[in-house]
Amino acid sequence: MKPLATEKAIMLIESQNVLTFETERNMSKPNLRKEIEDLFEVKIEKIRIMNKGNKKIAYVKLKKKFPAIDVATKLGLI
What we know:
This protein is α+β, with helices and mostly antiparallel strands. The chain has one domain (2-75): 2-Layer Sandwich (Alpha-Beta Plaits). The protein contains 3 helices and 4 strands; from the N terminus they run E-H-E-H-E-E-H. It is globular. The two termini are 18 Å apart.
């Protein structure tokens, strides 16, 4: 799992409190939820998955109490 720092991903962080990750094809939503919540000490509201070719892109919407911009700053995306 690695965070994406595209222009669209940065806009989603600022406007919708959503982090974007590229994950392994076999990663399930429950496993992804647990890994992100444990790693960044946040709570997730919703996860959307997009399969694109050989990649799996996860859009992770955090609960309002946990700003995505704080996590992105820790990761060095912003």
